[in-house]
Design a protein that fits this description.
By secondary structure, the chain is mostly helical. Helix content is 71%, strand content 5%. Bound molecules: adenosine-5'-triphosphate and ligand LXEULUCI.
Amino acid sequence: MLGAASFGDWLGLLATSIFAATQVSGDTAKGAAFGGVIAVRLLPALVLGPVAGVLADRFDRRFTMVICDLLRFVLFASIPMVALLGAKGGVVVGWAAIATFLIETVTLIWIPAKEAAVPNLIPRTRLEMANQLTLITTYGITPILAALAAAGLEAALRGISHNPTMGWAEPAQIALWVNAFSRLATALVVFFGIKEISGRDGRRDRPEQGMLRQFVEGWKFIGKTPLVRGLVLGILGAFAGGGIVIGTARFFASSLGAGDAAFYLLFGAIFVGLALGIGLGPMIVREMSRRRWFGMSIVLASASVLILAVALHLSMAILGAVLVGAGAGMAFLAGTTLLGGEIADDVRGRVFAVVQTGTRLVLMLAISASSVLVGVGGSRELNIANLGISISSTRMLLLAAGVAGIFAGISAFRQMDDKRGVPVLLDLWGSVRGRPLSPAEPFTSNGLFVVFEGGEGGGKSTQVARLADALGNRGREVVVTREPGATDVGERIRGLVLGGATGPNALSPRAEALLYAADRAHHVATVVRPALTRGAVVISDRYVDSSLAYQGAGRTLPVDEVSWLSSWATGGLKPDLVVLLDVDPNVGLRRVVDRGAGTDRLEGESLEFHERVRYAFLDLAAADPKRYLVLDASRPADEIATAVAGRLDEMLVDPTAEGRSGLGKQQPDLPGQPRLSDDELGKIVDSELERRS
Ligand SMILES: Nc1ncnc2c1ncn2[C@@H]1O[C@H](COP(=O)(O)OP(=O)(O)OP(=O)(O)O)[C@@H](O)[C@H]1O
Ligand SMILES: Cc1cn([C@H]2C[C@H](O)[C@@H](COP(=O)(O)O)O2)c(=O)[nH]c1=O
């Protein structure tokens, strides 16, 4: 139904503008009438936008929508009616402008009511799919259908409408009637068919609050909530960029040496990209955090504006335009879904109203300012320092828009990020492959987590014991632990992975990886985290890197999958320091044999296996040197112990020294959930009790 109404609206937008233009003669008057009607449609946003959201949050949204649609029915129908009643051209145009202004005003109230109501009707898991459908219908299918219908009407009725007795059959008039009746139909469907829109809690939340208070509270909510701030900032930034692209499009097409055809091609490319972004985006990024996806999509759209700015050839410009559209489409979808799904019902209307008002204003300003600016300098070329490098002002403007958009996308990303500390590109790559990285579990470490890693016989157990003694003598609480086998469950797992059959009946590599991960999950939850919370120094003989080296490089399982598994098992807990005892496998394995306690299943692996393990450890250390202390394990044990103790001294004296990233620090608050003062908390509890009573 909303699709049909949207079709009617697009048709109405085209029809009112064309209709106004046909009522006057002369090019200038026609242009003014056409542009005037469109400008009038945008103006009410200025006046009414801020209060529209309050109405959506205050009154029954179903009745608000129905009343708005009935009003729009009457107003749309009145435009052709005035002409039918025989009014003169000027009067008809005047009334078309006034009616359009009123229609837009009413629409401004209808949109936040509808947008705020939709999330209450659809389960959250389906919200994105519903938004996909709505956006594709509203911005993809219905404008095209409307344009086709307008052209079809024009062709079909050309003969009839010249007949003076058939004035009512002018194409623009018919289109307006269609628009009017589509609104009447929406009103009836919402009133009789979607009664659930009325049944929400939010309306009764604060009936005693005045409108002004609600209005002010809405703005405060937007300003104070990082998620909403980020969303609003990102959406406005994206629209500003989009406005500049639209405003400069014609000059840009001519700067490519192409004419009107190129202009239409670029426009088409943006819409193709938009449809691809909205339609395929969720399938590509799969489980990726929607907050991250939103910021990244804005960065993609803006970076693609830069491609436009430097495009030397039409094909490059078309690629840029498709990517601009794809980024914008994905940002639009992610933004709408986040607004609907993560914002409480009682303020949702006001947030939607701010977004819709802001986007209209920003778009209008960006289009007009950029078209004026390129109009002034667009046909000329700026010649830099007489070096023969000439840059058109259109491209400079696009460059500025791209940079500003990237900035807006990054700031939005930062404000909303719900996976702080998780590398962005790895997360994106993991999500595309169906395995997004998990954020670190909120946790306060008051201690120090030191891990010893390395190949077989490197001297880890020896050095763990030496360090524990040294720290214990200084009065520190030290917890010595190991993987696998630090807990009862771990002991049993150790028996499975290190004992057990070899040859064809041996444990499969994936099962082995899962068993090590299970040991680790239990170990971290029951030994490591509690000790770190107490403030102890935890010294572990092996941790995550052993899985990456042995199961990843040694068994040749995909390292990113093993890494994801470990990060899931540990909730993202990273050591403060990893001491890597680097040993040639020939030397290490000889020591193991000389120890005389026999060899286990892994120690019995080939030399090539142990070589791969060794270089995997070294690669891990090279990728994050601040967190690692790499020592040559062939040095005497005392020298190694002194080097380790020296590094620990530095870290314990200066808690901010490199490698002590998580120490004594609380994980950041989740974005979108600012900490509340006792006062604020008290107020919320009071109002909740009041509401319940
Ligand atoms: N720096 C060293 N130089 C020579 N021998 C050493 C050195 N450090 C330890 N050793 C000896 O090497 C053998 C293995 O040492 P240790 O058990 O500490 O190594 P590990 O890395 O824990 O072995 P595993 O890989 O089995 O866990 C022991 O006999 C130990 O005494
Ligand atoms: C944690 C972990 C260990 N391993 C391997 C490495 C060793 O061969 C054994 C542990 O024996 P140690 O004498 O206690 O060093 O297990 C592994 O393959 N994957 C891991 O995650």
